[in-house]
Each structure stands twice: as structure tokens, then as C-alpha cells.
Amino acid sequence: MISIIIPTYNESKNITDLVVRINRCLSRNYELIIVDDGSPDGTGLLAEELAQNYPIKVIHRRQKLGLASAVIEGFKAGCGELLCVMDSDLSHPPEIIPLLLEKFEDPNTDLVVASRFAKGGGIKNWPKKRLLSTYLAIATVRPLTKVKDPMSGFFILKRNVIHEVKLIPRGFKILLEILVKGKYKGVEESPFVFIDRVHGVSKLNLKVYQDFIAQLCDLYFYRLRMIFRIQQ
Question: Tell me: the pLDDT tens digits for 155-167?
Fold first, then answer.
């Protein structure tokens, strides 16, 4: 079974469409773990209504605690041996989930990233400023990973990749944390076209960028500690 973790905050205009599309494209057993950060627009209550007809677990949190912590909470609540993470704003097309799952036919593949920057991928409707900041962020992490899109929020991993791995619930870039700290043999990237949200507003703000800088410092120090231990 695959557990699909979907963090939500004020996504009432998108969540029904997303759930229906996921159900339509998946033929295998799945569960949705919707982690809602106390959305004022009623997203959590709508998810509870959807759970009457779809395999959904809803985790209600009292306040906005952040995407990374929501994902980690979803990992703990999920029962699947495969864990998928995706956004709730329809920028991540659920129709490519079966294509991502096909990559696991190779037993050496433990993590599959839906990549905007792999050949065939792309981004639509993003302002140049946001696109530039993404390219700069990827450049800053290049010494940590060779994955083309380490900033992706859409990926699937085997549960053992994060078994007994201490993940820090900070910011938006939980994939980067997993790529640096996770236990995996092989990573595959599958291209997709990211289309910016139609409904709702982006959650990006100054704090998100501050969290990323703090995360970056932590991960570089973590990598240095690992190198030092190996050399000893």
C-alpha cells in the first residue's frame, strides 16, 4: 500500500478535486493522510466529509505549524511501505503518481522525485523572481546532492529510507533533508510540469526563506560531521 501525505492550509477550493483525481488514477491500495493546520476556510472539515467516501485519515492541528512538520506527522500516521508527499494546491498532477511508482520496479530504487528540471519537466506561470530564487537555492545545495530538483515537494520513498532517521521539522524543503540524511541506494527522477496554483495563495513568505537558510547551515554541518566520522 502507498500512503499519500498531503499537508493543507486553506485549500478548500482544491482538496475535493485533488482527492477525486487521486482516486481516479490509482488502481492499487492507497490511503490519504491529510494533515490540516487548523485552516480557517474549513479545509479540515471538508476533508472529514470526503473521508466518508474515500480512504482518508485527517489529522487536525490547532495552528499553522509548517509543511515539514506536517509531512513528518503524516509519515508516522501512514501505514504504507511506500510514502508519497505532494502539495494540495493542484500544482502536483496526481496523474503521474503511477509513473513514479513504476520506477520502484528496479529493486535498487528507494526514492523517486517528481522533477521539474529533469528532461521533459518544466514550470508554468511562475514569476521570474520566484524562478530565479529556485535556481539559486538549487545552486546552494549542489555540493549536498546531485539530484536535479532537490527542492521538489512531490516525491515517493520507501519507508526504510527514513527509518530511525532524525528529520528536523523546519520549513518547506523536507525532501532536501531526506536526500542528505536518508538511507537509500538509488534515487530516480521523473519529469513533470509544475503549473502554479489557480485557487488560493502561495504560503511562501520571508520566514520560509529564513528557515531554508537555517536548514542549509544544519545540513552542511551534518555532512561535515559525517565526513569527519568516516575519516576517523
Answer: 999 999 999 999 9
